């Protein structure tokens, strides 16, 4: 009797994340790859925007290699919200806080002038 079959939707735990996809384990016997093209209908720039290590998600079994119990998996259209990343990364500028540091004395002076005028 087969434990899993193509088309099944099952729970899997993310065990590794690579640039080309995420590896997931179904149990002690079966594991598989969610290729980057099987994460979302939209362009996936960074897989960590969709998965975290140890996270459990639903996946669809696309193909089974009976020789070594490895699976081709898909998260597309199986998990709510997977068509867009969960989190947005803040991109730092080259200047960082430098611009704020330079502007701060002017802001303080302006506010002090406002306070002194009220007194």
Major sheet characteristics: 5 strands, mixed, barrel
Q: In terms of per-residue confidence, which ranges show pLDDT below 50 for 5 or more consecutive residues? A: none
End-to-end separation: 87 Å
Mean pLDDT, as a whole number? 85
Question: So how many helices?
Answer: 1
Secondary structural class: alpha+beta
Q: What sort of overall outline do the alpha carbons produce when their principal axes are compared?
A: rod-shaped
How do the SSEs run, as a string of H and E? EEEEEH
- What strand order characterises the main sheet? 1-2-3-5-4
User: How large a portion of the residues is in β-strands, by DSSP E?
Assistant: 25-35%
Computed over alpha carbons, the radius of gyration is 24 Å
The oligomeric state of the chains shown is single chain
DSSP summary, beta strand count: 5
Tell me roughly what share of residues is in helical segments. 10-25%
